[in-house]
Amino acid sequence: MRRTFFYSMMAVLLVTSLLLTACQPAGGGGNKVVTFIFVQEPETLNVHYTNMYFSTILQQLWEPWAWEYDENNNPYPVLVAELPSVENGGISADGTVLTLKVRDDITWSDGEPVTADDFVFTWEMAIAPSNTVATTYPYSEAVSVVAQDPQTVVVTFAAPFAPWMYFFHGVLPKHVLQPVFDSEGTLDNAEWNNAPTVGNGPFVFAEWESGSFLRFVRNDNYWGEAPKVDEIFIRIVPDDASQIAALTSGEGDLGIFIAYPDIPTLEEAGLNTVKVFSGYNEGWYLNMGPDANPAMLDVNVRQALAYATDRFAITRDLLLDKTVPAATFWDGSPWMDPTLAPHPYDPAMANTLLDEAGWVDSNGDGTRDKDGVELVLRYIANDRQVRIDTMAVIKQQLAQVGIEVDLFNVDSDILFGSYGDDGPVATGNYDIAEWSDLPGGFPDPDTAYWLCSEIPSDESPQGSNWQFLCDQELNDLFVLQKTQVNFEDRVATFHQISRIMFEKVYFLGIWQDPDIWAVGSRLSGVKISGVTPFSNITEWDIP
Amino acid sequence: MTRYIVRRLLQAVPLLFFISLLLFVMMQNMGDPLATMGGRTMTRSQDRARLTRQLGLDKPVIVQYFFWLIGNDWTKIDLDGDGIAESPGIRKGVLRGDFGYSLVNRKPAMEVILERLPNTLLLMVSAEVVVILGSLLLGIYAALRQYSLADNVVTTLSFIGYSMPIFFVALGLMYIFAVNFKAWGLPYLPTVGMFDPRVGKSVWQVAWHMILPIFTIAITSFAANSRYVRSTMLEAMGQDYIRTARSKGIPRRSIVFIHALKNASLPIITVVGLDLPFLLGGAVVTERIFAWPGMGRLFLDHVSRADTPVVMGILMLIAVAVIFFQIITDVLYAWLDPRIRYH
Predict the structure, then answer these.
(1) How far apart are CA B314 and CA B293, in angstroms?
(2) What is the DSSP letter of A99?
(3) CA A371, CA A363: separation in Å to the nearest integer?
(4) Is the pLDDT of residue A7 over 70?
């Protein structure tokens, strides 16, 4: 009887499982659905409220930028009739006035026309004190933004403003959001932020189930070329290994942030992997402030660090030869002096430079020292595995030239904590910090990291110059470039900047850090831009 | 009993205040919510300063706690950064049911939590049912056949499951039954999510997608629970009243399931009662690996962003649930064992 009971229970479980298997609904339905696998969930769809990559890259689906970028990161007009320039009168001769011609054939998905008023409203919302937007930049740089007529937007700056292309990444529908702002005094809690009722891209928002998925369906009122697929389904899969499993099993058509070791697995499963340059370079930020090891103030020591670090071996062995060492903060862009190349691995040169600088092993403990100070450097990064591995390798390499390194790995929110929050980098509690970064308005090259005015202090705790470096020549060049609306002039200035930073080793590039995308074999027509990845989404197709 | 329950509820009030204060202070040391704002790089210094002021993060911790507790609609705040508090606050505070707005997506914290709660309950309650039924089945079977081959096999297998890390079990099941089965041309299970977008969401789709997560949780939970059932059943089966029942000729099934199991279940109810509130917290690892949109992932995501309103909401929900289920457990105890009386 006991045996019968046990077997009965097991049979029930088995039959239940089989029933579930057998009753799985049939697939199909006729719609062409492309499934993206995102490892992070977008925070919001109102791009003004987030810095998050996965939020911003979705915009090309439903809310295009004024201008977007092709697969070579070259800009082309989308909501405007042409890119403004001095030649076509879009940029004034003195660089302080930007005039945009809004296309007269574009509409929101509800049929309302997109006009200059929407652009002005976007600027007003970005700088409204009651809106807790993620950044007011670059909108706060404009003195005024006015609609001269329904198709003309005039942006006026107090001084020439070169990074103007960072404007209008997402234009807000005034006819929908103005009433919300008028009644609530803020857009912070507008339902539109997470469930936009109108957009102006090839797809429109359909559904968002928190933590699970987002759906965008074809916009029947789209003013441009109609997309070839019916629906974009974005599945949130936070675990890297699960993302690979979903892609290899065919449950996803597109994945991003593929780790280098996973590339062979995906390619064996028939997926294409695409390297896309999105402005990021992995590099070292070197502390030259009062709390740094005094060796860091010596250019010979910084150059020795560059020669003693075998970045070629790191990219070959840890990154499977999928990328190359970086020379500057602007690698892969026209802003870097093209004559620069990463320092070669030359430990003999490193030893010579350290000897010349007076750092020798006087006490025979295996570590160089000078004036009683040991050459022991604090090397900090977040806890991403590839960084942990890199740090371990570099520790061994530097030990060969008599430099000892203490390694620290912390969570990103701690690593990037501000001076006021005792962040380890912001307070100068490090000698070498490593992360991957890009100019804030990429592909615009502007950055504030090395401005003298950005050095954090008790009076200015939010400063972002965590190198505590004030090189007046460099500072003046950074200030100058921001006012150079002539492309060639600005390129020349950045070549100077990149050369100074390279020669004085104010930044040490470790590797160029492209994004790796996995594209399913059934997808065709995919061209991924590093700035606006889905800018040719209307050309994507599946059988 | 009623007086006992009322007294326990009253005792819970100061306890919850203390817990909330402790957790709130701890949350302030979980990182800087404005460090990256979810981006791949750090937040601009001017924006960080502005947001710190607008979101009230520049206030002392104790002030932030009181605003969280009782709101700030009775005072004014400085939104434009001119040093003058000119705008009335809009927060009502937890005591008036307002848990604040998520620092991540600006949605009401309780709305963020309640969006995920049903998914977590669906997964965790299903898993708990499977675990309880499976543990009872295995535990009773092993107890009735003590030291037999079957007992040893059940014990060995359950300990293998118990000793394996849950992420290993999860990924192992996923790669075997989803990825490899598909590659081998066999019927296969889905890897992630709650349904196939090409099919659409349905009861069957969700059930289909729950198989691997449930069995992952179950495999790692069977061992402890089934061993517990086995030992309490063995103890109960050796009692005098069981011998008496046998001598009266009562059928074995009745002896096992009515007499022995009812008495053996008292300690088991304590274990299950302790488990229940934590079902709300979800299964962090399982949800992450199978991309199940539950509370565990929500908690992890928002802790990593130092999102105090959402994290505090989840923690307070669990704290309340712990107290509630403890009282329920005590009441069940008294119902199962009439000798127990609370005063």
Answers:
(1) 15
(2) E
(3) 11
(4) no
Instruction: Give the model confidence (pLDDT) of A187-226 as tens digits.
Output: 999 999 999 999 999 999 999 999 999 999 999 999 999 9
Radius of gyration of chain B (CA): 25
User: Which member of A211, A423, A438 has the closest CB to residue B32?
Assistant: A423
A536, pLDDT greater than 70: yes
Tell which of A418, A447, A457, A468 to mutate to test the B interface (max B CBs under 10 Å). Answer: A418
DSSP state of B160: H
B265-299, pLDDT tens digit by residue? 777 777 777 777 777 776 889 999 999 999 999 99
- Which residues on B lie below 8 Å from A245 (Cβ)? 171, 174-175, 178-179, 191-192
- Tell me which H or E stretch contains A209: strand A203-209
**ipTM score assigned to the predicted complex:** 0.83
Instruction: Give exposure, B282-317, as e/b (b: 16+ Cβ within 10 Å).
Output: bbbbbbbbbbbbbbbbbbbbbbebbbbbbbbbbbbb
Question: Are the C-beta atoms of A273 and A517 separated by less than 8 Å?
Answer: yes
A 212-271 near B (Cβ less than 8 A): 212-213, 215, 231, 233, 235-239, 241-242, 245-246, 248-251
What backbone phi and psi angles, to 5 degrees, belong to A74? -90, 135
pLDDT by residue (tens digit) across A472-484?
999 999 999 999 9
Going by C-alpha positions, the residue among A190, A195, A246 that lies closest to residue A36 is: A246
Is the preceding peptide bond at A160 cis, omega within 30 degrees of 0? no
Question: Mean pLDDT over all residues of chain A?
Answer: 92
Question: Which residues, in sequence order, are CB contacts of A413 under 8 Å at separation 6+?
Answer: B30, B31, B32, B33, B35, B36, B304, B305, B306
- Residues B226 and B133: beta-carbon distance below 8 Å: no
Cα–Cα nearest to B105, from B281, B295, B282, B302? B302
Contact between residue A313 and residue A345 where contact means Cβ atoms under 8 Å apart? yes
Instruction: Give the alpha-carbon dihedral of B16, B19, B23, B26, to 10 degrees.
Output: 160
Lookup: tokens for A172: 């807000």
How much is the pTM?
Answer: 0.86
